[in-house]
Amino acid sequence: MAAVGLQTHIWANNTRSVLLLAAFPVLMIFIIYGVQLILMGLGFLPGTGRGLGDDMALAASWLGGTVPLAFVVAGIWFAISYFGSQTMIDLMTGARKVERKSEPDLYNLLENLAISRGLRTPTLRVIDNDSLNAFATGLHEGQYSVTVTRGLVNTLTRDELEAVLAHELTHVINKDVRTMVIASIFAGIISVIAELVFRGLIYSRGGGRRDNKNAMPLILIGLAFAAVGFALAIVIRMMLSRTREYVADAGAVELTKNPDAMISALRKVEGRSSLKGPDELQQLFLDNQPNGIGLEGLFATHPPIQKRVDALIRFGGGVDPGPWSGGAFAPTPPDYNTSVPAAG
Fold this sequence. Notes:
By secondary structure, the chain is mainly α. 63% of the residues lie in helices and 5% in strands. The longest helix has 42 residues, at 215-256.
């Protein structure tokens, strides 16, 4: 993909990200309003004793007090997540920091890619897991980190591993990592609020007063508001993740000058990327779309591998070796234009 075209995609993605992230506070208001209607219908909050419209107007009037309080709580949550996100991610995935001494080849690949773009080398982490996956995290310079699984390191060739590292480094260069981490924090806040509401409905045994004649309509309308907010949060998260994978693949080709390596790496990862972690973290993975068909593909955080391969062939001129069966791909002519020199 031409540099101008790639930069245009980056600008478009960043603009879309700002608009989508700006929608999260609106979704919070939707969900809070829905919660208030539900609590009113259940009798935990007082109604007007009049019509449905009056009760809904009363719930809306409370937003002037509940929304600022909710944003204060969300702000505290965001601050804790902002400074402790990497520690939490390490605990959830089992990732551990590695140095050049323990992983010299892997460290050199990442360091030289970073140097080629004038960047400070991100911290390198490894997960001792047989799955084939990788992801980048961090919110600012000096905090960025690239994590790979042991299965990925043991399975991919040097050129393929370089392409994957370049893919993750592109997320750092384009500030995708920061956007996705912030989006994950926001989505986590909304998810917890929605889950508390629905769990409260399930376990509530009618502890409130149920003398409101508008109880059932209020509960149904409140559920609709909360469900819409929760669903849109999921859609926003998917849109942020999907659109960036194509650009990161193209960025990897731009860094390594080796589209075939990126394609063959994706083929090896295909169907072998299963890695445990919360939904908010899985959207950061190199791949989180084992099938990409039907409803599963519709709600996946990543585009199907086949579509990513097709895009690389179209814009990068690579060759698709086809699905990987576990052996070696057909040999291709050596590429002497990679950005990283051979070890030693």
